[in-house]
Amino acid sequence: MDDFATRSYGTSAQDNRPLFGETSARDRIINIVVGVLTSLLLLVTVISAFVFPHLPPKPLNVFFVICILMSCASIGVLIYWYRQGDLEPKFRNLIYYSLFCVVMLCMCANLYFHDVGK
After folding, report:
1. Does the keyword Transmembrane helix apply (predicted)?
2. Residue 88: which residues within 8 A CB-CB, separation 6 or more?
3. What gap in Å lies between CA 39 and CA 7, rounded to an integer?
4. Whole-number pLDDT of residue 103
5. Is 88 left (phi over 0), alpha (psi -120 to 50) or beta?
6. Total structural domains in the chain?
7. 13 pLDDT more than 70
């Protein structure tokens, strides 16, 4: 089988981009780090919504977390499709952008839950 460094993908220029399903170790490490950090922040946000400032939780806090979780569900579908090979590699940037938005939403939610800035 030929090496992916010598493929031309039907063009005249050499291209060293991997095909679907082939990922470098660097890409896998980035995916794992981004996924773990986002998951931990999401877990902290969900726990904070139900615990802070006191029990029982405020309905607005629960609604905020439900909205964040619903946006995570759509990102989860994109990640699933990407790993199945149904999406082109350019969608990886969209997934990273969406995860960045979720991280920012979680940070805003935690700041709100803990009354920072009052």
Report:
1. yes
2. none
3. 37
4. 95
5. beta
6. 1
7. no
Domain extent for 68: 58-117
> Global pTM?
0.73
Whole-angstrom distance, CA of residue 61 vs CA of residue 51: 10
Is 105 a domain residue? yes
User: Could you give the CA distance from residue 75 to residue 77 in angstroms, rounded to a whole number?
Assistant: 5
Q: What is the mean pLDDT of residues 46-51?
A: 90
Other beta carbons within 10 Å of 113: 23
Residue 98 lies inside a defined structural domain of this protein: yes
- How is residue 11 annotated by DSSP? S
The string of DSSP letters for 62-116 reads HHHHHHHHHHHHHHHHHHHHHHHT-S-TTHHHHHHHHHHHHHHHHHHHHHHHTTT
Given a cut of 90, whether residue 116 has pLDDT beyond it is no
Dist CA 29 CA 33 (whole Å): 6
Is 13 inside a domain boundary? no
